[in-house]
Write a structure and sequence with these properties.
This protein has 540 residues and is α/β, with parallel strands linked by helices. Helices cover 31% and strands 19% of the residues. The protein is built from 15 helices and 21 strands. The strands form four sheets. An eight-stranded mixed beta sheet has the order 12-21-20-13-14-19-15-18, with helices on both faces. The chain has a six-stranded mixed beta sheet with strand order 3-2-1-4-6-5, with helices on both faces. It is globular.
Length: 540
């Protein structure tokens, strides 16, 4: 069965399943479009370009009413936001390329749950718990052996919005009468929370937490005069202390509920944007309440199209499980023209690239299809040596973002326990571990943790070979790995954007499918050439 699904709205995506296999997931923000974009016609055309035949089913995610009337009265084509029963779907027939095919839509809530369960290693028929926590929903569920979903409880509504709103409290540029936090603020608060070195709130902070976490979600403009941390700025240490306290307070609301009510020891699957909070994911593992904890790399709404497709597959075939690869996006667009004359081009491969990195060059790295989900996992990355704090600073300058933001390590699986205490695969950068050496300063956050990605020969061969070559030169099979993107945009996926980024943002060059382009204007590259007595390149 061939199933084509789309999530039309926030974090829009188009996904294709064929015979229980994820063939592609094309995300609207990728190829340098704005983060969190909705699906547009070019995205649909890109998706149709990857489909070799008319699908058997077309699916639509439940959330994204087309107009205000649909918002108020419901939609005939979108199943809606909430709803977990098998009846919370729309099934009909539609015309597609002059052929009548099935049409399916299920709720946004079901899409999150089915995405997490369907992509998990938990065998079909195994009961488990699910946690959906995102902007609006914060709830636990029980999934039985027949995939009937039961809502256990709504623990806290709008946990993601409540979390991100705290960042706007301290940021003077955030309008306090804003209805919701900015979409990027939650991720920034995750970074700031790690700077906290105080665990007990003041009396004023207790009152602030009551405002933020008890009762309905409210605008900051409703706060009383004299509220702690209001417009103090993001560098204020007491605000950073409170960021950690507040982060723990939200987690503990869910933890206390889980400890009291989820006593069967089943596995837990997690979905929703809060599933990208690596500290919280790690805490769930550490609770000991669950046989295992699984978070898909598309825990945010970028996985909604996949989840709706899985729901349709379950409805029409009885199978809720899929095979998938995190590198299921589009191939890199290298056919556009750019001025190659400003680069020296190398064809030699990983050993030479490893040597460049070991000598402090910072490079873009492009390989295969782009990653699904928001985390760069070695196919659309910026890579660098992991040893110096100054490298982290330069990477944040290149990415034009705040200096408090951490840089993640990518690490050979066989070295992960030695350097980070990680004794299992962590291929999608969704859990934190504690660094066990002071040598990796560029990838160790201020609290001593690292959000690692582990790599094996089978998970990403080209990146694995680079890490092996880098280890041979330096003794460490670890590199800095951060996303290759313009600020506020999705991953770069074409050569002209990559060329522009390298020149304007200060990369020393980039590597596309093993071919290295080194900027002749890069002082670090020229120093490298001089150090190794290389023949002068034309134009240098």
């Amino acid at each position: 069965m061939k199933i084509l699904a789309y999530n039309p709205g926030h974090d829009g995506a188009v996904a294709l399943l064929e015979d229980d296999q994820l063939v592609m997931s094309i995300e609207a923000e990728k190829d340098s479009n704005y983060r969190y974009s909705s699906v547009s016609i070019p995205d649909v055309l890109d998706a149709l370009g990857e489909v070799d035949d008319i699908p058997d089913v077309i699916c639509a995610g439940g959330w994204w009413p087309r107009d205000h009337h649909e918002y108020l009265h419901g939609s005939k084509i979108y199943a809606g936001y909430r709803g977990i029963s098998n009846d919370d779907v729309i099934i009909s027939r539609k015309r597609f390329f002059q052929k009548e095919i099935r049409y399916f839509s299920s709720s946004h809530e079901r899409a999150h749950i089915l995405c997490a369960f369907g992509m998990s290693p938990i065998p079909s028929g195994t009961p488990c718990y699910a946690l959906v926590w995102e902007g609006a929903i914060g709830a636990f569920y029980e999934i039985d052996s027949n995939l009937n979903i039961r809502l256990i409880a709504d623990v806290l509504n709008q946990p993601g919005n409540r979390y991100g709103l705290l960042y706007g409290l301290a940021d003077p540029s955030f309008p306090k009468d804003g209805e919701y936090p900015r979409t990027s603020d939650a991720g920034k608060l995750m970074a700031l929370a790690s700077f906290s070195n105080r665990g007990v709130p003041t009396e004023g902070e207790i009152g602030l937490m009551e405002f933020l976490l008890d009762g309905p979600f409210r605008k900051l403009s409703e706060l009383k005069h004299g509220t702690p941390h209001l417009n103090v700025g993001l560098d204020d240490q007491e605000f950073r202390n409170f960021s950690g306290i507040y982060s723990d307070a939200i987690f503990n609301k869910f933890y206390r509920f889980a400890k009291a009510n989820l006593k069967k020891g089943w596995p837990l699957v997690i979905s929703g944007g809060c599933g990208l909070n690596c500290d919280w994911n790690s805490k769930w593992r550490q609770t000991g309440l669950f046989a295992d904890v699984f978070v898909p790399p598309v825990a945010n709404d970028s996985g909604s199209a996949i989840g709706t497709a899985i729901d349709a597959q379950f409805r029409f075939t009885g199978n809720p499980k899929i095979e998938w690869d995190v590198y299921s996006g589009l191939a890199f667009r290298s056919g556009r023209n750019f001025a190659e004359g400003k680069y020296e081009i190398w064809e030699e491969g990983c050993v030479d690239v490893a040597s460049l990195l070991a000598n402090d060059l910072i490079l873009g790295w492009v390989s295969g299809k782009y990653e699904i989900g928001p985390r760069a996992l070695g196919n659309r990355s910026i890579i660098a040596a992991p040893f110096k704090g100054s490298t982290r600073e330069r990477l944040n300058e290149i990415k034009q973002r705040e200096q408090f933001r951490p840089i993640a390590p990518v690490c050979l699986q066989e070295d992960a326990e030695e350097h980070f205490g990680c004794n299992r695969e962590s291929p999608h950068m969704l859990f934190t571990f504690r660094a066990k050496t002071d040598a990796l300063r560029a990838v160790t956050h201020v609290n001593g943790t690292a959000r690692i990605q582990t790599v094996t020969r089978t998970s990403n061969m080209r990146l694995y070979e680079l890490l092996v070559a880098f280890k041979a030169l330096t003794g460490y099979g670890v590199l800095c790995n951060t996303s290759l993107n313009f600020n506020g945009r999705g991953f770069i996926n074409n050569i002209s954007d990559l060329d522009e980024y390298a020149v304007k943002h200060g990369l020393d060059g980039f590597v596309v499918e093993g071919r290295a382009y080194l900027l002749l204007t890069s002082s670090r590259y020229q120093a490298y050439r001089q150090k190794f007595s290389l023949i002068p390149a034309p134009g240098s």
